[in-house]
Design a protein that fits this description.
The chain has 137 residues and is mainly α. The protein has two domains: 58 residues, no CATH class; 62 residues, no CATH class. It is 37% helix and 0% strand. One of its GO terms (biological process) is DNA recombination. It catalyses: ATP + H2O = ADP + phosphate + H(+). This is ATP-dependent DNA helicase.
Length: 137
């Protein structure tokens, strides 16, 4: 099982394949990942590898893995407009602006937060630990 697979560099993916093949004692060029079943989970719209090429550039990925997209967002399934906004935002490219409606919607959320107009058990996301500490006071 590999979580956050989108963070794995193509070179590391190849090293995982080579090491599993070695560990399993398989000496065949057709044995992928040492014939060990791999389930890889991740959101390729989130983060890419920091230093090198993405797993997409590896033939081990493109030739041997089936892509399955999960279409129901369980956390936001009761609020489809919010869920759709989150999907639009996560698919934005660098230097691409979000649409005006989404920006206004997020600004309203931010204003509610600043004025403490939210349910006490609401989920809060912060970019910095100092913001978390301030919120938790």
């Amino acid at each position: 099982f590999v979580d956050e697979v989108s963070l794995i560099q193509a070179k590391l993916w190849g090293a995982i394949h080579a090491r599993l093949t070695q560990i399993m004692g398989i000496h065949s060029n057709t044995a992928i990942f040492g014939n060990v079943g791999i389930i890889a989970i991740g959101d390729f719209y989130q983060c890419s590898p920091v230093a090198s090429s993405s797993i997409y550039s590896s033939l081990l990925w493109s030739d041997h893995f089936e892509y399955i997209e999960l279409k129901i967002n369980e956390r936001q399934k009761t609020n489809s407009s919010f869920s759709q906004m989150l999907n639009r935002i996560r698919k934005l490219k660098k230097k691409e602006d979000m649409n005006k409606e989404d920006r206004n919607s997020l600004e309203k959320c931010h204003q509610r937060y600043l004025h403490k107009e939210y349910h006490p058990e609401s989920l809060h996301l912060f970019a910095k630990n100092t913001q978390v500490d301030t919120h938790n006071l």
